[in-house]
Amino acid sequence: MEKLTLVIPAKFEATTLPTVLKEIKDLNLNCKKIVVVPKYDVETQKVLEGTDCVVLIQKGEGFGNALIEGLNHSSTEYSCIFNADGSFDPKYLNEMLSKNEDNYEFVFSTRYRKPGGSDDDTILTFLGNYFFTSLCKILFRLNISDVLYTYVMGKTNAFKDLALTNNDFSFCVELPVKAKFKSFRVFDFPSYERPRISGKKKVNELKDGFLILISILKLFIFKK
Asked: What is the DSSP string of 66-111?
């Protein structure tokens, strides 16, 4: 019986998703896969036909919303956020699961602890991540080193207990900050980020950076 569900947001990822799913299958990891697809993304829905994935047609809009809907649909003991673009290496899944089973509520992957790293980071994203991670350490005493990286595995009940609400990319800071509010045990897990297989990033550094900053300030002011 599966104990892990991969929650995979997939917006316009018809060209990348087959490769990602094959990599996961080749691991022989016994897990469920929930792929969250916008209703207007017919091409991605088509490539999922005949797979063993649970296809969840997204009711709302946004990266965070897709993850919230997918996590709420998960029924296994553990869940893991997993990108559909090929940047997350599935070879870490077994070790992350072992860490979760070692009495951690969440395992947060990081590109900034050796032997972790990134083939996708730019100077702008590196500086932005350093700023937001440092700010979260100061304001919330957050003890993870990569606050913007969403390769995260955790106990499904813990995910749901956070009552996450951010529908955009600011979801990435809401998750660890609320985990801190709940005093959940977290592990900072080094992993290597690969370049996406094809297509373009969906993150807008300036717009999404502003939304992330606003989210951090709201979390600090309202503490919920």
From this structure: HHHHHHHH--SSEEEE--SSS-S-GGGHHHHHHHHHTT-SEEEEES
Residue 168: exposure state from Cβ atoms within 10 A (0-12, 13-18, ≥19): middle
Least Cα distance to 105 among 63, 64, 159, 68 occurs for 159
Closest CA to 150 of 104, 111, 200: 111
The model's pLDDT over 24-48, given as tens digits with 9 standing for 90+, comes to: 999 989 999 999 999 999 999 999 9
Instruction: Give the Cα separation of 108 and 116 in Å (integer).
Output: 12
User: How far apart (Å, rounded) are the C-alpha atoms in residues 38 and 77?
Assistant: 26
Write out pLDDT tens, residues 74-95: 999 999 999 999 999 999 999 9
Could you tell me which of 120, 85, 82, 72 has the C-alpha nearest to residue 11? 85
| Polymer length in residues for the chain | 224
Q: How far is Cα 96 from Cα 73, in angstroms, rounded to an integer?
A: 21
DSSP label of 60: S
Distance CA 181, CA 117 (A): 28
The rounded distance, in Å, linking the Cα atoms of 146 and 87 is 15
* Chain center to CA of 190: 15
